[in-house]
Queue: 4 jobs
Job 1
Amino acid sequence: MSVAIGAQTLFSAIPQIQYEGPQSDNPLAFRWYDAQRVVAGKPMKEWLRFAGAYWHSFNGSGADPFGEPTHLFPWDTEADPIARARAKMDAAFEFLTKLGLPYYCFHDVDVVDYTNDVADNERRLQTMVAYAKEKQQETGIKLLWGTANLFSHRRYMNGAATNPDFHVLAHGGAQVKAAIDATIALGGENYVFWGGREGYMTLLNTDMKREQEHFARFLHTAKDYARRNGFTGTFFIEPKPMEPTKHQYDYDAATVIGFLRQYDLLDDFKLNLEVNHATLAGHTFQHELQVAADAGLLGSIDANRGDYQNGWDTDQFPNNLYELTESMLVILEAGGLQGGGINFDAKIRRNSTDAQDLFHAHIGGMDLFARALVAADAILEKSDYRQIRRQRYASFDGGPGQAFEQGQLSLEDLRDFAAQNGEPAVVSGRQEYLENLINRFI
């Protein structure tokens, strides 16, 4: 990506992306994502609420531990940080508009480069918030959620809210305050906390109980500030098990839900779940979705995937229709996401260096989710998927099974039932049939 700044913009050669249907062979068109198409009673755009990730798409350089950057953005040549941030934002909103993305998400340091001066950082961010507000008004694009990057700076090498040094924690608070102010000013619908380094490397130097209490106090303090200043949206916690920190406190959905419950945060917080984080925790994404949905805390998702051969967070664009169809079954049965949307927290590969590569990646991801939504809705409405599951638990729908669910049976009652009724029948779970059913509808 090395187009020069000037009359020729970074994405000027890319047309507005349109829906052309499944038969189209145009690589710069949607085949499945038709924003107005009604599925399960709502337009696709309401089920999916797509968002662009400011950090990967407009800050990701393609660098890795073994090589220098390969994504060379034109704004990187700007010496002035505000001019550089404005040029980047111009390109970002051009991209979002041409792709028809209704939302975007950002970390504070994605929007404008920070220094080590708190007041200067606040001024820089406020300047760019004013510019972003103009861009939002011009395009109609909204902010799905904002957040603060409390993991990249070296001061956060031992965490931010869980850091053993109060001075570092205070710096984290300063960043979160500014990021919340920016989110409120831009009409952001949610605010996300990702504890990228909230955890520990070894217990030898860690007071884990105290750190988790500090984390909870930090979240309460941030939440109270936001509410006092008019923020009415939802706060999200994004689980991740490890990497960069060996033991992260927000390991998976179940761990986060337990934390929120223990520290009285359930009324204000829900979960933002990421595919690659789920697999790093040893779960499927479907599992994490179901855990959150069962708790009434399925707020938002980050769309990506990992690599089956790499045990780390590769943040690739999603391409597994089977996996996403199963995921959309969970989301549909839960009634949709609560407050959030589908943020493409994914990056094009190091050797994908053309401007259109970024479009191809997002088009593919949006089409994939749209196709999975259609397939999942058809499965729920036209197959015996629900019936099979209901039948599997039918013994709890009446008689002694129902009495057990209602707390009316003692352990002695269970013993007597088992003794009187002999060995239970072996009943198939019909797993292969159900797996074939997914394939039939996709």
Job 2
Amino acid sequence: MDGGDVATPVQKKAHEAWRVYKYYLDKTTPHSTYRWIGTFVVFLIYCLRVFSIHGFYIISYGLGIYLLNLLIGFLSPLVDPELDAASDGGGASLPTRGSDEFKPFIRRLPEFKFWYSMTKAFCIAFLMTFFSVFDVPVFWPILLCYWIVLFVLTMRRQISHMIKHKYIPFSIGKQKYSGRRSAGSRAD
């Protein structure tokens, strides 16, 4: 009997619960619309909770800062063209001229991880609203104004980076082609 591999019954149950959780999480991967609808519902529940108890604004502010950080990662390329240009240039980069080879946009934070982190953040923030120790009295309009200024400045910088390096982090569906013309429909 190996002494290092002995697991308690609690550890075995926790491991089994984690496997079941991961199984169902993996099954949600192709259903992005439903995942985002679920996250929106969690967001609404959180907002109703904060609005109804008129408190926990500092939790909301921290949540907003965290979500802004996630959004920046979601909108940023995996390899920053400015950092890649400073190095030897051997890595992948975004095309800057029409003659450059097309390289697809790869996010620094993939959509699934963005969704998962956002949903976890809302759930954790919701749970924190049940503990009065996190209800720090603050003047919430100041926090809101500061967050809006931070958001505008951050997005302005991110958008100027996108324009400078000519990348668009969104693709609206798959490109559709009209198909080939039949030989009889061509006018010769």
Job 3
Amino acid sequence: MARRARALVSVAVTLGSVATAAALFAGAVTTRVARTVVMPPRKRSQDTRVFSVDEAAGTVVLSSNADSLLPGDYSFWFDQGGGHARLGQIVDRGVGTVTRRILAVDFGDLAAARSGRFSGWYYLSPKELGVPYESVRVPTSLGLAPAWLIPAERPSSRWVIQVHGRATLRQEALRAVPVFRNAGYTSLLISYRNDGEAPPSPDRRYSLGDREWLDVEAAILFALDRGAEDVVLMGWSMGGATVLQAATRSRLRSLVTAIVLDSPVVNWVDTLLYQGRRCRSPGP
């Protein structure tokens, strides 16, 4: 009986150790997922390989993936953000490779690059749009947040406030400016807390729209002071979630006449589950 009791105790201790290890592992994975979502990234993953550059032909051969196979013109960042090129149409495809046209190399040495990443941005500055603009600062509860003010072609009381997504900058919104300007809108492209340009919050973490919307409200006040009477809010990704928060929680929400969303986060549960799968975390 004593031997059997010792065996049972040994099994219990082993099971307890396994359970503890599993709990520690689950806790570590959970922490990793949470930090991935709320902490602004210090570095961006470069998931596209650069195999070769043909400067005479103006082409680059890249690894084939979901981004490199997309039609259209895109930004391509390399050298951990130290280099930037603009890539155009696909001109050839091979086994595991894709060849794209090089439209421009703005800075850096693309020929020396070994990897990079695609971005939905195309423009780096409002200068490239060929229209007047003003660099302004929006007063927020944390301080002055940089923004670009791009006036409509003719004086207008219709404004659109454009809010970029998570881990990006206001350059992301530049592609929407020509559409709104042609429709008679003045565009205000804002920065917000913890995006690397606006003043950070004390914890320096994203709150997934739960606090960022206050900076959108500050932008609405700024627009009103400049003569806006009709305000449209536009947001990309997490910026879409932030816009929705502002439209439902701001004391100025009655002034918002329309909302435009591009790939918005409307359900954080689904987003977090997706992030968990990417991190290969266990279901429970």
Job 4
Amino acid sequence: MDGVRGDGAAAIAPLATWKDDFSRAFQYYLDKSTPLPTQRWLGTLAVATIYVLRVYYLQGFYIVSYGLGIYILNLLIGFLSPKVDPELEVLDGASLPTKESDEFKPFIRRLPEFKFWYAITKAFCVAFLMTFFSVFDVPVFWPILLCYWVVLFVLTMKRQIMHMIKYKYVPFSIGKQRYTGKKSAASGLPRD
């Protein structure tokens, strides 16, 4: 009986070692890709293009695409939303700064950009793998799904934009803000 256990454990050990090695290598490449957002998003665009071409050539798997679209919309809402909802802050007594003298509170996303990218990339990969199984090719009239998704997207984004306007936050910052110093009105040169 011990010999059987020993053989089973011996068979599992290489698999566990391989899993640990793969996990460690995968995490290494994820960590290396963190400071390269443009390259990461270009890679995701390539994966998305491959998925779209596969669905187009197969003329099917529209329900998978619809589910993928809903999931991406959900991720987008998390990406555009603040970590702490201002509606709930008002109830707690804390609020966003409204005057120059108020404390500065930076915009912190509910879903950070890296996690947003990673979730979208995983979603496209899973959807691509689902296209190899005919059980997911449910026959549907795709224009109805597309119209429903567009309406859902417009209504959701309208609500999100109204929330942004009401609480005066912008979830995007283009580039790094740099301090240029105070400029003299006469010379245009920085003062000492």
